[in-house]
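Much of our argument rests on the idea that a fold can be written as discrete symbols. The amino acid sequence and the backbone structure tokens for this protein are reproduced below:

___
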Amino acid sequence: MYNPYPQIDEATEWVRQFNRYTAGYSSRVCGFASIYNEFAGNERGLLFLDHIHPNGRGYRVIAGKLDGLGYGRLG
């Protein structure tokens, strides 16, 4: 998970804790693609005008990280 509210310390800590927790469930069957570091400090270039949702570049970053898990195509 990325943090769309990096200016709020509590949000940053919550997102980091959530990512640590969910990464613990990563396995051969269910991978975890961390995008936090790619978005941290780059929110302006990766988030849409609403400053919450990813823009096209942000979605490409997410897709690249998911592709890096190596699961291949679905369907």
About this structure: The two ends are 26 Å apart (CA to CA). The chain has a mean pLDDT of 93.
